[in-house]
Design goal:
There is one protein chain. This protein is an alpha+beta fold. Helices cover 61% and strands 8% of the residues. Among the domains are: 76 residues, no CATH class; 44 residues, no CATH class. The protein has a four-stranded antiparallel beta sheet. Strands 1-2 form a two-stranded antiparallel sheet. Helix 12 runs parallel beside helix 15, helix 12 packs across helix 18 and helix 15 runs parallel beside helix 17.
């Protein structure tokens, strides 16, 4: 009985080994490209598959996405995720279309932003339908605003220039979006876009000073010119010219268009454009030759004062902010504020800070009183009350009118992506004096979690020690 049982067990082992050897014979055909499911199997190839180098390929179940593997000369398989079948190429590459999951490694999901960016740029170069172009522009603008993609644009500068230049020359409904795209590109790339901005400068200036263009389009072009002059080397040479145009637009009194009176909606758009031009004038004044700035203001100081009596709230606030910055600059440089009678200016600002005109909405009055109280606080010789903007593990201190003007302008461009650019965009960090970009936020958050966990363990130990001391005193009460 013992011998027969041993012989039976030997036969069963032989049968299993034969089955296993038969199943292994199928793998070379699978590697040749036949689609078959591989479940929890290991291939050990000692007969020099893949350029006579020994290799081990481990393929697990639950396959879904595509992955490409590269086999090196020493037989090591590496690459990105893939597979439903495996096939090899002549260039020593394994292409697999089966989902691969490695339980010992955490695979980081690859952001498809780069693929979208490349596709959108290619479509904008060839697409002629307005609806498609506008959709692509909106998607591209959203990517620029919500992500920092500066390192991915090194080989795309010429493409972006072609898209922007063709869009500006067409001068159609897309022109405003094209101008916004240019602004975001300069903020993202910085001075590396200097040559491209130089080639576009005259075209932008022509649109900004064209009275027949829509105020909304002229506004976005004015922002592009101002940001380009603020960041690029070429723009730095053109600041005085742009300052002159911006101030003249802001002080121009427009009531008619083509001999006809403007309707309410048109007047609102023009007032918004004038207020923006005055804000951009103050924005560029922070880095311009201050003597030249004062010379421009003194020529039209009465017109600038009258802007605080405007029926439009934005124009009144823009004029007030300009005077607050000017006074702050004079005070920081220990100079006397001599461009206008200081007491008359204080009286006008105080009147606006206490205004209770019922013809205005309660919201507008509340905003006006709040802003002009801050302006009056500065004109009276007090320091700017610091505001703190927190983003991630850092904070931005708004401690002057100059920094407030910077923050307001870039917020109006970047929107909800402002914090992302403050954390990752070195150009913006230099403007706000934040220093170099910090380490990867994943590493920072990981350290923070580890510190929190360690603190939790320490607190638990202290709690246990405290409870053990009190454990024997629970019944020591006199009733």
């Amino acid at each position: 009985m013992g011998r027969s049982s041993k012989s039976n067990s030997n036969k069963s082992r032989q049968q299993k080994s034969e089955k296993k050897s038969k199943s292994l014979k199928n793998y070379p055909t699978l590697l040749g490209g036949e689609q078959q499911m591989l479940n929890d199997s290991i291939i050990s190839d000692t007969d020099s598959l893949f350029n006579d180098a020994s290799s081990i390929v481990s393929i697990n179940s639950n396959f879904s996405t595509n992955r490409k593997y590269q086999v090196s000369d020493d037989g090591i398989v590496s690459g990105q995720q893939s597979p439903d079948y495996i096939e090899t190429n002549d260039d020593n590459t394994i292409i697999s279309t089966t989902n691969y999951e490695d339980s010992n490694k955490k695979l980081t999901p690859i952001d498809d932003t780069l693929a979208k960016l490349s596709d959108i740029l290619d479509e904008l170069l060839i697409s002629k339908r307005k609806s498609n172009r506008q959709n692509h522009l909106d998607s591209l603008i959203k990517i620029f605003q919500t992500k920092f993609i500066g390192i991915y644009l090194d080989n795309r500068k010429t493409t972006l220039q072609q898209i922007i230049e063709s869009g500006l020359k067409k001068f159609d409904d897309d022109t405003g979006s094209i101008a916004l795209l240019l602004t975001l590109t300069i903020i993202t790339i910085g001075n590396e876009f200097n040559d491209q901005f130089q080639s576009l400068y005259n075209l932008l200036l022509k649109i900004m000073i064209d009275p027949s263009a829509k105020p909304s389009v002229r506004s976005k072009v004015a922002i592009s010119l101002s940001i380009g002059c603020f960041i690029t080397d070429f723009g730095d040479e053109k600041i005085d010219e742009i300052l002159d145009y911006l101030l003249s637009i802001a002080l121009t009194n427009v009531r008619t268009s083509g001999g006809q009176s403007l309707i309410s909606s048109q007047l609102t758009e023009i007032n918004a454009f004038k207020a923006l031009c005055l804000n951009l004038f103050t924005f560029l004044s922070t880095i311009a030759d201050f003597d030249y700035v004062c010379q421009l203001i003194q020529q039209d100081i009465n017109k600038l004062i009258k802007l605080m009596d405007s029926t439009d709230l934005d124009i009144r606030l823009s004029a007030g902010t300009t005077f607050a910055f000017l006074y702050e600059f004079y005070d920081n440089n220990d100079q006397e504020f001599d461009i206008y009678n200081l007491q008359d200016l204080k009286d006008k600002i105080m009147k606006l800070s206490n205004d209770s005109n019922k013809s205005q909405s309660k919201k507008n009055l509340r905003v006006q009183r709040s802003e002009f109280r801050d302006i009056l606080h500065t004109i009276e010789g007090n320091e700017y009350e610091m505001e703190i903007i927190k983003f991630g593990y850092e904070q931005l201190d708004i401690d002057s009118w100059r920094m407030k003007i910077y923050y307001d302008i870039f917020c109006s461009i970047l929107g909800s992506g402002m914090n992302i650019h403050l954390a990752q965009n070195q150009t913006l960090r230099d403007i706000f004096e934040l220093g170099s970009v910090l380490l990867d936020k994943v590493l920072i958050s990981r350290d923070t979690r580890m510190n929190a966990k360690q603190q939790h363990v320490t607190n638990r130990k202290q709690r246990e020690i405290s409870r053990s001391k009190m454990r024997g005193k629970r019944g020591d009460f006199d009733y």
